[in-house]
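Researcher: I'd like a structural prediction for the single chain below. Treat it as a standalone chain; there are no partners to consider.
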Amino acid sequence: MSTLQTVSRKTASIGAVLVFILLVGSVAYYFIGQRAYSFLDCVYMTFITISTIGYGEVVDLSGSPGGRIFTMMLALTGIGGLTYTFSMVTALIVEGNLTNSFRRKNMKKQIEHSAGHFIVCSAERVGTHIINELTATHRPFVVIERHQEHIDALLEKHPDALYLLGDPTDNETLLQAGVERACGLFATEDEDNRDLVICFSAKQLNPSLRVISQARDSKNIDKMKRAGAESVISAEQIGGLRMASEMTRPSVVSFLDIMLRDKEKNLRIEEVTLPTKIGEKTIADLNLARFRKLLLMAVQDGDEWIYNPPETHRLSGKSVLVFMGTPEERIELETELEKS
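Model: Treating it as a single chain, here is the predicted structure.
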């Protein structure tokens, strides 16, 4: 919840109490003055009492000791309520500013020490789904977003997300996001020409960076690839393939959708590249059976794919394992392979 929302909710409750005090005081003065004064005069009398303006009595209390006692009690109650309201709002604003300042400073340090992370350019639309998937699979990322309202929406769902408020087409912003240490970048801005600039700039700053871009117009796909994008996603193409799959393979599509939405099992089709130092081993040597939810589906050796490989299949230091499993098992497998 943002500082503004917190202040609004708390001041609304205090405001309701102050309105109640104003109403009770006005009604009391109406009867204390024996109905000789208008209700507006009574409201005014209550207001100048609790706000300590110090004007003369609108409702004459010279002959009413009880009225003066009530006025003193009303002043104490109203002044206390107003003082508390102003102090609370001030404290919340100051606290919120300090909290945001510390968060930005801490976040800057985290980004400076980040390596092997992903950069998501834009937290809107396509970027939102990318962020959700990276979070679900426990992959580190930094978001670059131009609009504060999109950052606010991001933090409501992902309060610990690392972000930069800036223009991803600017080299300085990309460097602040750690593009030189990142392993991948998603160009998902709202215009193809902006994504084109992002692809070109990111590749110039880090030639080994893997860049994935979207293309709203299919005519720009070749341009994106020439600018450095390894892969360009066309919404039209993906949409057409999805519709065809829904028609011809509904059970397969349903299975994949349920797999992605099931937060308890959190299964994914994952991949792990074997470290070059691992040497030649067979699949049996990896002892994948210890990972209860891991299902090996294929092995990629260069341009060759081996589907449902046997236990005796010999691996190399450049083999890629493609399997179904949880993000936690992927992380554990990567750790074990690095130790081997």
